[in-house]
Design goal:
heterodimer, A: Rossmann fold, Ubiquitin-like (UB roll), de novo design (two linked rop proteins), 3 domains, 5-stranded mixed sheet, 4-stranded parallel sheet, about 15% strand, globular, B: alpha/beta, Alpha-Beta Plaits, Rossmann fold, 6-stranded mixed β-barrel
Chain lengths: ~425, ~900
């Protein structure tokens, strides 16, 4: 960890005991929530809006706007829900796990503030079923929060009542997609729902539902506590605050790092990551996981922010950075990604169900010439246009960028 | 009315209802946007991605099926990009699809393949991969086969099962490209699938194909498809019958038409085999030297006419009687009663309603004024609270039950009251299981709870009940004796359960009751229904939409047969025949001298049999009934029939009853004739001829006319059944507004007083059909049964039906499909009693009552209470009515089929 970068989400990392709510409270925990309870709901939402906080799950939607939609989509609704998406499943992504295992209380506090803001009565943490330790830590944190009166009826003697329930996912990548997650939470098989309506309008049990990523919720207490101005002073013009980056590949210091938006890939790889392992040369990276994009070494100085990456056709996604070196077999890597999509495709819609297999077969079993890659690109584009949910719309991201930046190399494997 | 909106599709201005489905709007207006997963009866799936369109102002492609139309919407349905996209999607589908086609189903995919010029496999943009996908075939169901290689994973079958039928048997296994449909935990044949075939009807690509006639059918070479009414229960499902070479090869539900909106049950879809069965009666038979011998129609009719005349002359008018039939059309029942009244000169005409809902009708007519269900079938879905009492609705009225199950999905509260567990209990909020024949005590107790909790509807009592609060107070006094302790003691139902049920019913904004045989087939049947009606009346749960009382009828024309006058006390349209003015009116329409119409009520069904036993009835004309199996105390029935000098049985098969006949006349089945029937919610529905009469069989109406003519009696000159219906409209005002023309596509509910009247979906909205226009409360007391279990006969037997067989099963047991589900009698015995009497599960046992005995198979089950057993009455080899007794409800004259003391011995 490098101390020259501001800490937001990981402020308590290594300081508090994740099994002790007291140690969280001693370090200023739940002060933000208490502060929020004294504000009007709309003021809480305004503060989040002003902060410029964007969703950390990958899509980067403005959190305050989402909160606003959720409370205003149905004014006569008496029931609203908050869901914390902790079904971390994007390849190369392991940041939510770190938060959950080290500071579960900040997540709960973030959920509580959001719940208060949108007048929700019940929350769920939908957690990846394989995350044994996270489950243990979070469940303990929920139990302690109930004991301390931060959850339950009439919280801290106010009229605000709120419950949180932990729900374990069963290993489907697709259930990390918000509407599929909601289906799953309702006890159904994890199939994506048709959008619109969005969860803010008709989510869990068709009630307005706010669904955010673990990292997103973890930012909220600090925004309320320190103010939106403080928060928006970190980062770039359109990407405020910090981001947890998951660094993997043949570099010295792999791991999760909290860094301000706008930091360059070079700084991440060479300063934070300590550079490449001996014998390896930096040749590029996959940004954002399987549903992410390849970049080559020409982009080493690109600032890591939503808008800057978008301008070069790349994506920040979940914050995964999988470093590619000269020895990386890019074709195998691409096949691996497509095989992953094929395996995780629920099979509901035609383009994704069949397209993932078609592309996989083409890559795996064919002699690959320019024609084959064009064909794959065409199919990925068709899938992106026609698929029902983000899964089928994703292969285009790695496929197109891989071909764009590594075509020569890919063609070389075909020979 | 919905708000009208205007949209454009391909620049054409179109009017639609706000929120209507865009794909449906487009198709209605001639834009043939392709699509395979969409079905108007199902929720939106959005899986096949074929119905892509563009909407001005929206980025990207949109699936038309997922869009609700909004005013001003501008839609592009066809351009090169869209068509290319559709073609690509089709090519994708085809790559995973096994296209072998055997003409046994209608394939929705093939026309699209042609339309998008993808017939040539080698020229497709995507090559086949289906050969490499594991093929899953499930052939374990008696009615269908599933083949994953033909499945396009459109969800239609899953949703048909879940959303339409409320069964939820189907789901996908595996995922991605390997996924396939499974029933239950794996095998169709071992799952809870009950064979309704909804999934077959909705499967677009033949992945689920029906088994029966698969070797015979070629869907591209069918002679005709005819819409008619299902011949089974009283739901009156509209069916589409597929015929080739005068043989029925397939039946589907008719889409978009009430009462079933395309839905069917296993009997309706697969129970047609009887019509073309080789055992059909094809020639008239006359008993000669003790044996039934085939004769010509002329001889049979001449002989029958002569015998009737001879007996009438010898013993007088009162010595003849007839059983009409709930299995025949309105026109035939009408003619039959007209024949009895004119040719026999008496009113001895009745039919099996006397054995089923006579008590319900008797109580409803006295209390409300009409002997029919007060609501529409759709209300079973939309009412807030439904009590189903003495009615195994899922098995006996499966399609009505689909409405109930859909109601449950939208939050309806369901209360099941039944001595025996029924499948509806799985959907119920509350299940009350009273001991047999304790219903009055239970219902009086519930009424008492409602009164004590002040949940009565004061305004309704004041305004709509005869005597107002005076009547109410009398009821209050009677039911006050039925304390929670007493009711619990008599019925065995825990007090908090029936209290909760009473409060739930009374508090519901709207509530309906479905009452069945369990209530009516008792010596206190009429009182049971009175007790139920009292509860309904004091809570004001009638006379409004979604509120009322409904007896789902057991045969497709039980309702109609009484409606058109097959009754010893009423002329067509519920006109009392003892009234001189009524007789005068009828005599005018019929063109007979007023004096020839008998002013005295005739005998009821069981009274006719008793009179035969006593030698008072000498000749009996039975049209489509099988009393040896269906009437109580079988030995008594057989003895009675044997004493007759002349018995005519007119039926489609030889039956247990025709064995005692002197003349057997071969009738045509419902599939072979035109006419109308009336279903449980008073809908007049068309019957249409689908096949020509089998052998020399004739429609019943023609046979009746022929007999009358030979007797020298004029019961009318008709060229077709429509002319008979026109006469019915003249006699019975409730039908006056209903012409064949008006019900060509969809039935109309009586009363319908003129041709501009839309029919009546809910009865009693303004007034009750009594003289005062108000409903009447009939307080009733609980009476214990005259027959009580004792040391010799320690158990009480209940009887009922099963989904897969029908009544005396003369029709259903001709079906291999239905028999494969159930073809064997059984008796349900509670585990406690099984242990006590040393009865092993699935062992042969003898069931003995004071009247007789039978052999059957014991099934040890806690569906019945200890001290009670249950038997289905479908099986002639284990004839339940050998055990029942011929005692009668004093008002309705029904027999107590639901209560006989018995003992069980293992063999």
């Amino acid at each position: 960890m490098n101390s020259k970068y501001p800490k937001v989400v990981l402020k308590n990392f290594g300081i508090i005991d994740p099994f002790s709510i007291d140690s969280y409270i001693q370090n200023g925990g739940f002060e933000a929530f208490k502060k929020a309870l004294k504000l009007n709901r709309i003021d809480v939402i305004d503060e989040i809006k002003k902060s410029g906080l964007r969703g950390r799950g990958g899509a980067g939607f403005f959190t305050g706007l989402k909160q606003n939609y959720t409370i205003s989509s149905c004014e006569e609704c008496t029931e609203r829900f908050v869901i914390c998406n902790a079904d971390e499943g994007e390849p190369g992504t392991f940041k939510d796990k770190l938060i959950m295992e080290n500071d579960p209380f900040v997540i709960i506090e973030g959920i509580l503030i959001s719940a208060y803001a949108i007048d929700a009565t019940k929350g769920f943490i939908y957690i990846r079923g394989e995350y044994d330790k996270s489950i243990q830590v979070i469940q303990n944190a929920i139990d302690q929060a109930y004991e301390k009166g931060f959850l339950g009826k009439k919280i801290l003697n106010t009229n605000f009542s709120f419950d949180i329930e932990l729900f374990l996912g069963a290993g489907s990548y697709l259930c990390g997609e918000e509407l599929t997650l909601i289906e799953s939470l309702e006890g159904k098989r994890g199939y994506p729902r048709i959008k619109p309506p969005f969860p803010a309008e008709k989510g869990l049990w068709n009630k307005p539902t706010l669904i955010n990523n673990v990292e997103t919720f973890s930012n909220i207490p600090y925004i309320i506590q320190n103010g939106s101005e403080w928060f928006s002073s970190i980062g770039t013009s359109e990407s405020k605050g910090t981001k947890l980056f998951c660094l993997s590949g043949n570099i010295k210091n792999t791991g999760v790092y909290e860094l301000p938006f706008g930091i360059s890939l070079r700084e991440i790889v060479y300063d934070i990551g300590g550079g490449m392992l001996p014998g390896y040369e930096f040749k590029g990276a996959i940004l954002g996981g399987a549903a992410g994009t390849f970049v080559n070494d020409n982009f080493i100085d690109v600032p890591m922010a939503f808008e800057t990456l978008k301008s070069i056709g790349a994506t920040l996604g979940s914050g995964a950075i999988i470093v590619i070196d000269q020895k990386t077999n890019l074709l195998k890597l691409l096949i691996n990604i497509i095989e992953f999509f094929k395996h995780e495709s629920c099979g509901k819609c035609v383009p994704c169900r069949i397209g993932t297999t078609l592309i996989y077969n083409k890559l795996k079993y064919n002699k690959l010439t320019e024609n084959e890659f064009n064909w794959i690109l065409e199919q990925s584009e068709y899938m992106a246009r026609t698929s029902l949910c983000p899964l089928g719309q994703s292969p285009i991201l790695p496929v197109k960028s891989a071909i764009k930046y590594f075509k020569k190399k890919l063609l070389a494997y075909g020979k | 009315m919905e708000n009208k909106v205007y949209i454009t599709i391909e620049n054409k201005l179109i009017e639609a209802n706000e929120g209507e489905n865009l794909l449906q709007v487009a198709r209605k207006n001639g834009f043939d946007i392709p699509g395979l997963c969409y079905h108007p009866r199902l929720s939106i799936t959005g899986a096949c991605r074929l119905c892509v369109i563009k909407i001005e102002g929206q980025a990207g492609l949109v699936m038309a099926c997922t869009v609700q139309v909004k005013n001003g919407m501008k839609v592009i349905a066809f351009d090169d990009e869209l068509e290319n996209n559709r073609r690509n999607t089709l090519a994708y589908l085809l790559s995973e699809h096994n296209e072998s086609y055997d003409n046994t189903y209608i394939d929705e995919l093939r026309p699209l393949v042609k339309r998008y010029k993808l017939e040539n496999v080698n020229e497709r943009p995507i090559s086949s991969i289906w050969q490499n996908i594991p093929q899953k075939v499930d052939d374990t169901s008696p009615v269908l086969t599933y083949d994953s290689s033909k499945c396009i994973k459109c969800f239609r079958c899953i949703k048909a099962c879940e959303e339409i039928q409320g069964k939820g048997v189907l789901s996908f296994a595996d995922r991605g490209i390997q996924k396939y449909i499974v029933a239950g935990f794996g095998k169709w044949g071992e799952s809870e699938c009950d064979g309704c075939g909804e999934c077959i009807q909705l499967c677009p690509t033949g992945a689920i194909v029906e088994k029966p006639n698969r070797n015979k059918i070629n869907v591209n070479d069918i002679d005709k498809k005819v819409n008619t009414t299902c011949p089974y229960c009283g739901v009156g499902c509209q069916i589409e019958v597929w015929v080739k070479d005068n043989e029925i090869l397939r039946v589907n539900g008719v889409e978009n038409v009430s009462p079933n909106y395309g839905r069917l049950c296993v009997k309706g879809r697969f129970g047609y085999q009887y019509a073309n069965h080789k055992k059909r009666l094809t020639q008239p038979l006359v008993r000669k030297n003790g044996k039934l011998e085939p004769v010509s129609w002329d001889e049979a009719i001449q002989y029958t006419a002569n015998q009737f005349l001879k007996i009438k002359e010898k013993y007088g008018s009162a010595s003849l009687a007839g059983y009409s039939s709930a299995k025949c059309s309105n026109e035939e029942n009408y003619l039959f009663q007209k024949f009895i009244r004119i040719a026999f000169g008496n009113n001895n005409v009745d039919y099996c309603t006397r054995l089923c809902h006579a008590s319900t009708v008797a109580a409803m007519i006295r209390s409300l004024g009409d002997g029919a269900g007060s609501n529409s079938i759709e209300d079973f879905e939309t009412t807030d609270c439904l009590i189903v009492i003495g009615n195994n609705i899922i098995e006996t009225h499966p399609v009505t039950a689909t409405f109930v199950k859909r109601g449950k999905q939208r939050g309806q509260q369901i209360i099941v009251i039944d001595p025996k567990w029924t499948p509806l209990v799985k959907y119920a909020d509350i299940f009350l299981q009273p001991r047999l024949a304790t219903d009055v005590a239970l219902l009086n107790g519930m009424v008492n709870v409602i009164i004590k909790n002040n949940l009565i509807d004061k305004k309704f009592i004041e305004e709509r009940i005869e005597g107002g609060f005076e009547s109410f107070n009398y009821l209050k006094e009677v039911v006050s004796k039925y304390t929670e302790e007493l009711v619990e003691e008599i019925t065995g139902v825990p007090r908090d359960l029936f209290t909760k049920a009473a409060i739930m019913y009374a508090k519901a904004p709207t509530a309906m009751i479905a009452t069945g045989m369990g209530m009516s087939q008792q010596t206190v049947g009429t009182n049971n229904v009175f007790a139920l009606l009292n509860m309904c009346l004091i809570t004001g749960k009638i006379g409004r939409e979604k509120c009322g009382i409904n007896p789902p009828r057991g045969q497709n024309n039980v309702q109609g047969a009484t409606d058109v006058g097959a009754s010893p006390i009423m002329y067509p349209g519920y006109i009392p025949l003892t009234n001189e003015k009524n007789r005068y009116e009828v005599s005018k329409v019929w063109g007979v001298p007023f004096e020839t119409l008998d002013p005295n009520p005739g005998l009821t069904t069981l009274e006719i049999m008793d009179a035969a036993y006593d030698g008072k009835i000498k000749a009996l004309y039975i049209m489509g009934e099988n009393p040896v199996v269906t009437d109580p105390d079988q030995l008594h029935t057989i003895n009675a029939l044997q004493k007759l000098e002349f018995l005519v049985v007119q039926d489609i098969f030889e039956t247990e009853t025709s064995a005692y006949a002197h003349v057997v006349l071969p009738a045509s089945s419902l599939f072979e004739k035109d006419g109308t029937v009336v279903n449980s919610d008073r809908r007049v529905l068309r019957l249409r001829k689908t096949i020509e009469p089998i052998g020399e069989s004739k429609p019943d109406w023609l046979i009746i006319i022929n007999i009358a003519n030979k007797m020298g009696v004029n019961i009318g000159n008709y060229h077709n059944v429509e002319e008979i219906w026109e006469e019915i409209r003249k006699v019975a005002p409730i039908f006056k507004g209903i012409s064949y023309n008006r019900i060509e596509n969809q039935g109309i509910q009586w009363p319908c007083y003129d041709e501009n009247h839309e029919g009546t979906s809910t009865l009693y909205k303004e007034k009750f059909n009594t003289l005062s226009g108000k409903a009447k409360i009939y307080p009733v007391e609980y009476q214990s049964q005259s027959e009580q279990p004792n040391e010799e006969y320690p158990l009480v037997m209940n009887t009922g039906r099963n989904l897969y067989q029908y009544h005396s099963s003369t029709m259903t047991r001709k079906s291999d499909v239905l028999n494969s589900y159930l073809n064997e009698s059984y008796v349900l015995v509670n585990p406690v009693d099984a242990k006590k009497y040393n009865i092993q599960d699935r062992s042969k046992v003898k069931v003995i009552s004071p009247r007789g005995n039978l052999v059957t198979t014991a099934i040890v089950s806690d569906e019945v209470l200890s001290g009670e057993v249950f038997m289905p009455w479908h099986f002639h080899e284990s004839p339940v009515n050998a055990l029942t007794r011929n005692e009668k409800d004093p008002i309705s004259k029904i027999a107590p089929f639901k209560y006989s003391i018995v003992r069980i011995e293992h063999l």
